[in-house]
Amino acid sequence: MTQHTTNSIRNVVLASYAGAGKTSLAEALVYSAGVIPAMGSTLTGNTVGDFEPEEVHHHHSMSTALLHFDFKDTSFNILDAPGSLDFFADTKSTIHVADAAVLVIGASGLRSEVERIWDVIQEREIPSVIFVNELDKEHTNFESTLEEISKVLEIACIPIGLGPMRWPLAAENPNR
Ligand SMILES: Nc1nc2c(ncn2[C@@H]2O[C@H](COP(=O)(O)OP(=O)(O)OP(=O)(O)O)[C@@H](O)[C@H]2O)c(=O)[nH]1
Ligand SMILES: [Mg+2]
User: Fold this and answer.
1) Residue owning the nearest CA to atom 4 of ligand 1
2) Quick one: which of 60, 79, 77, 59 has its CA closest to 68?
3) Would you say the CB of residue 141 lies under 6 angstroms from ligand 1?
4) What residues does each domain of the chain span?
């Protein structure tokens, strides 16, 4: 097992409104890293993140889940925060302990709660990126989503695209 110092540990929060795809993204990350052999789904109720019976029943996260993987020399703790405003206190506390944030936006439509969550991330002044999700859905458009994000959050976005990536660790992991 790799020994990590605090310098090589990153605590990254996935935050957004409900249904944007945080738990699915967390699942894809641990799958890509070779931690799990197959991807679960929140609809089926077999994801790593949504493990509480209530979460499985309602298909929504109700508290922050911690997922972990190593990539190269860095150890990542992924904090999958709930999106519903009913659990906003939990989301806020999670953002307050994170080193970095990923704001997940579903391309099928931005919800108004996103401003409140973005404000908390901005208050913390931690490195943050926006992940545009659901681009496989019909009638979604990356450029118009980007425009909407810029308008709603009053920021200038710099698009970064990552192609299909096979992580070195996945090839080494016996689960893959
Ligand atoms: N088509 C498509 N569906 C997606 C994508 N990401 C997530 N979904 C679906 O969207 C729904 C919500 O995804 P979740 O990952 O549970 O969303 P969440 O942000 O964790 O939601 P909360 O826990 O309620 O905050 C599920 O049915 C997912 O299968 C995507 O990229 N494309
Ligand atoms: Mg979730």
Assistant:
1) 134
2) 77
3) no
4) 7-161
